[in-house]
Backbone:
């Protein structure tokens, strides 16, 4: 179990950072999770670009070019067939202050871990629906995930696999996934912007929908319109394209369509599996 910390491969147990690292103390950093299928990276450039944009938007000065080689190295050094590469860049080590310290070196961590992706077509997510109480910069993939953690824990406690969130009645995304709906034979997903993470899987699904000639609207679906929704599914690096069977909201359960993956979801799942080959 090796990790790459600041350019050095180390056994995980020996990889340590300062207690004054701003990632540890303030959650001041940006991360990515990049999947690989049969040892082949999936949508790597899109993930790297999002990381670059995130770093830039919070003023962490770190050149990401070397991460291409390092990511490939992480997979080559592992014996995992399917998995993901986790990477995070924090602002570095400095006495605790809110504003940016001058002249700190970012702390960079990267490692591969095994993950089984196959079978997402057989999974069915029963999800909680609740108020999105996160900040208004959800497009930044910040390592400070308290809002997402609390949302996901609420789902876990309700025996659900994900918490799908809404802002004042408009559905945004899941605690660690993007969300799509089919309504009147049109595919809906929340537009990019400050209220959602621009999901890489979301983008892949939009391109698949385009290829399949589906009608698509990047518009939010209202909670009040959920009863008109015939299909719903989650997308993301850790769920691929997973059908939603039901929503639990205010102790009321709303079953979507037949309660299992519908025809649009099926077509997208098949095309998605094809792209990972
Ligand atoms: N989560 N929305 C949120 C809030 C997320 O955290 C994620 C990813 C997504 C899906 O993005 P992508 O398709 O690029 O994986 C949407 C990662 C995997 C995580 O935190 O583990």
Residues:
């Amino acid at each position: 179990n090796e990790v790459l910390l600041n350019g050095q491969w180390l056994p995980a147990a020996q990889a340590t950072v300062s207690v004054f690292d701003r990632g540890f103390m303030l959650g001041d950093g940006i991360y990515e999770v990049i999947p690989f299928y049969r040892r082949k990276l999936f949508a790597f450039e899109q993930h790297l670009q999002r990381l670059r944009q995130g770093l830039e938007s919070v003023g962490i000065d770190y050149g990401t070019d070397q991460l291409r080689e390092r990511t490939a190295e992480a997979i080559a050094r592992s014996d995992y067939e399917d998995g993901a590469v986790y990477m995070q860049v924090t602002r570095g080590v400095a006495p605790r202050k809110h504003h940016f310290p001058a002249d700190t070196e970012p702390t960079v961590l990267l490692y591969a871990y095994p993950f089984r992706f196959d079978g997402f077509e057989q999974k069915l997510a029963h999800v909680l629906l609740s108020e999105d109480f996160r900040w208004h910069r959800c497009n930044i993939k910040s390592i400070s995930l308290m809002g997402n953690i609390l949302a996901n824990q609420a789902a876990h406690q309700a025996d659900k696999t994900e918490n799908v969130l809404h802002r004042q009645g408009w559905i945004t995304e899941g605690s660690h996934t993007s969300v799509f709906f089919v309504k009147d034979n049109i595919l809906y997903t929340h537009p990019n912007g400050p209220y959602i993470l621009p999901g890489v899987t979301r983008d892949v699904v939009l391109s698949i929908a385009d290829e399949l000639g589906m009608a698509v609207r990047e518009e939010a679906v209202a909670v009040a319109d959920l009863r008109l929704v015939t299909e719903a599914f989650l997308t993301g690096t850790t769920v691929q394209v997973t059908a939603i069977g039901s929503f639990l909201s205010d102790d009321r359960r709303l079953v979507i369509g037949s309660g299992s993956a519908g025809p649009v979801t099926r077509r997208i799942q098949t095309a998605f599996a094809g792209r990972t080959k």
Q: What stands out?
A: The chain has a mean pLDDT of 97. The first strand starts at residue 2 and ends at 5.
